[in-house]
Amino acid sequence: MRISELAKATGVSVASIKYYLREGLLPEGVRSSPTQADYGDAHVRRLGVIRALIDSGVSVAEVRRVVAMLADPPENPNDLLGAAHAAVTPPVDDDVDTASAQELIAGLGWQPGLCDDATVAAIARALQNIERAGFAMPSAVAAEYVDAMRRIADAEIAHVPLSSPDEAVRYVVLGSVLVEPLLLSLRRVAEQIASGRRFADGVTESPD
Amino acid sequence: MRISELAKATGVSVASIKYYLREGLLPEGVRSSPTQADYGDAHVRRLGVIRALIDSGVSVAEVRRVVAMLADPPENPNDLLGAAHAAVTPPVDDDVDTASAQELIAGLGWQPGLCDDATVAAIARALQNIERAGFAMPSAVAAEYVDAMRRIADAEIAHVPLSSPDEAVRYVVLGSVLVEPLLLSLRRVAEQIASGRRFADGVTESPD
């Protein structure tokens, strides 16, 4: 199909498609004349991935790394997950003290070398921001965070499809990134419902 | 203290402090001369909050709404949570179909009116992006997301301190926002550990 038909099929404007071509997110079509190229179903699918990632807040540079991985996947799903996380993890300056972070993730069975340093540094940075704001996170709540994330990760990894490397890559890369906005908004709904339940009658629990 | 001393006490540069003053995030100090103002401990605490929010990815406009709420808190913690979420929720165009979102959060005990529409729309948008990317989220995993977020929210809301409205506001506003980066990076560590466990020996589970 021509670029105008690709735009129609995906709901992505011709201008955006040209931008993704220039940025190397979308592979070139097959030249059919000096001014025209032909696009196929692979382009339609790739555009769906690109738009979903960008709409989820992933940067163009990160999308480029993700689609490169989809095109040339690591063989072992375990290498894959590290690479997927690295692709969408902004670099963290590593002058942050990771002692409290390490203590927290010991509850996940963490040991040095079991996951990449950037993610541990991201936890340390988050904890530092929480402390700097003077927010006292109750330890029972922190324990619930660790436990809930362990359950989630166990369910996710148990469902990595092994039918083909392609499928495993899609599952791991897209699943880690695209689910983040879902989890955060689910938490907000859950908080509002729990709060409504606890404070339905205002702050003071009246005896009647 | 003078602005240079405030900078020293907080590790925030004079230029940034002046920017926060201009943007209305930080209240003016007490004028001590035509060219000098005096700052106190409240400024030190406020700067800690501002920097923590900005470093967590909250926009200047959102920080302004959060600090306004800290200065003039709603009386009922339940109103507070909705207001806190509204302050840090980017407007979502509401032309999104929320049917699947509503089905998912029915598992949280959601009913119309129990939480704000913007958050439900955010869930719908996240689900739409997941679908658009061609990512098939296993229903068992989706159920785990819902359950994990319910546990987290229940623990968080159970710990809202009622000692003073100020404390409740700090807990709810800062807790909802500042914990988000922590949760996302905890999930990534948990995924890498679970993946290491499942795929330690490569994709094929060899019998030995």
From TrEMBL, chains A, B:
Organism superkingdom: Bacteria
DNA-binding found in the keyword field: yes
SUPFAM superfamilies: Putative DNA-binding domain (SSF46955)
Single GO term (MF): DNA-binding transcription factor activity
Keywords (A to Z) from UniProt: DNA-binding
Domain HTH merR-type per the UniProt entry, residue ranges: 1-69
Pfam families from the UniProt entry: MerR_1
Protein name, UniProt field: DNA-binding transcriptional MerR regulator
Source organism: Microbacterium thalassium
Phylogenetic classification of the source organism: Bacteria, Bacillati, Actinomycetota, Actinomycetes, Micrococcales
